[in-house]
Amino acid sequence: MKELFIKTEQQQxxxxxxxxxxxxxxxxxxxIDEQSSFPHEHIQAxxxxxxxxxxxxxxxxxxxxxxxxALVLHETLGSYDxxxxxxxxWTLLVVGELFENxxxxxxxxxxxxxxxxxGAIINRCVSEVATGSPIRGxxxxxxxxxxxxxxxxxxxxxxxxxxxxxxxxxTSAWIEEQEKIGFFLIPKDAEGLSIDETWDVIAMRGxxxxxxxxxxxxxxxxxxxELPTYTTGFKLNGWLLxxxxxxxxxxxxARDYALEFANTHSPNSIKGTIASLPNVQSLLGEIELxxxxxxxxxxxxxxxxxxxxxxxANGQELTTDEAVLIVNAVNTAKHVxxxxxxxxxxxxMRVVGAKSLQRTNPLQRYYRDVRAGLHNPPMDxxxxxxxxxxxxxxxxxxxxxxx
Length: 403
What we know:
Blueprint: H1 9-35, H2 40-48, H3 67-80, H4 82-101, H5 106-117, E1 122-125, E2 143-147, E3 150-160, E4 168-175, E5 180-187, E6 193-196, E7 210-220, E8 224-226, H6 241-264, H7 278-313, H8 320-352, H9 362-371, H10 380-401
Parallel strand pairs: 1-4, 2-4
Antiparallel strand pairs: 2-3, 3-7, 4-5, 5-8, 6-7
Helix pairs in contact: 1-3, 3-4, 3-6, 4-6, 6-7, 6-8, 6-9, 7-8, 8-9, 8-10
C-alpha cells in the first residue's frame, strides 16, 4: 500500500539511499532506548548522505523536497528508529517552513541556507513548563532585552528535541518593550547557553529533548529573525505532518514485525503457523485498514497543502475558508495518524502475545513511543473543537444564505 504514495524517481532513489542505513539504525534502536542515549552516530550518518538538507530549496544547495515528498522518506526513517526520525524531523520541518514562507530577511535566509547546506541542524525552542503547550497561547517566560546593538536573552525552554546535536536554536522570547513574542536565532556555542539533561521519560527516550538554559545570552540585533503576527508563538502548518509521519513509520515497523511473527511462529498445538488462524488474520487485516486510513489521510492533507502553497506562489491569495480548511486537514491528519499508530501497535502486540512485553522485543518500545505522539501539537481536544466550530459555522452560514 505504501508504494502508492511514491510519486517520483527522486523519491525512489532517496528511499534506496536511506535503505543503506536501515540495518544499523534498527540494530542500535534497542540500545538507544535502554540507555536513553542520543543517537549522535545516526544524525551524522544522515548528515553524510544529505538528508538534513532535504527540504532546503534546490537553488540554495538542497534537495528541494516539498512536504509531500519529504513524508515518503520520513515515514520510512521512522520505521528504522523513531527517536532518530523525530529528532531530525524538526530540522526538516523548520527548514521547509522557513524557506517556503520566507519568514526572515532575504540576506539572513541566504546566510542560513549555506549553514544548512553544510549540514547544520535546527529546531524551534518554544515550550516551557509554566506555559504548557505553546499552541494554547501562553506567554513565554523567556525574555529578550535590548542592550545597544544586542539582545540579551534569559530563560529556560523544555522539550528541546535534538538538543545534543543542534547547531542552532530558534528560540521564542517575550520582548517587553514591544509587547511581542520574537524568535531569535541562537548558535550552539553562544556564551551562556547550556543544556540541562532533564529528558527522563518512557517514550522516545533517544530524542535528547532536554531543557535549553539561556543565561544572559547575547546575540546580534539581526538575530531577531521573526516577529510573528500570530499570538500563540506557534503556528500550525503543513510541515508539521513530518512529526505525524514519524509515528506512522513506527506503526509500520510494528505491522512488519507482527506479520513476520505470524508467518513463522508455529506452536505445536496447531499445524502450520498462526498466520492461518482466523483471529490472527482478523487482527492483521484490521492493522492494514488502520494503516491505509492513516496514509490516505496524511498524504491527502499533504497534497492539499502543497497545492494551496503553489496557488500562493503563483500570486493567488488564499481565501479565509481555504486557510481554515488546510489547518483542519493538517490537524485531522495528526489526530488520525497518531491514534491509528497506537491502535496498530496494540493489535500487533495481540498477534505476538506475551512475547511482545519482553524488553528485548521491539514491540514494547513501539508501544511506548507511539504514545508520545499524543503530546505533540495539536492536541486531540483542540482538533475536535476546531472541527466542530467550523462545521457549526458552515451550517449557520448555509442557513443564512437560504433565507
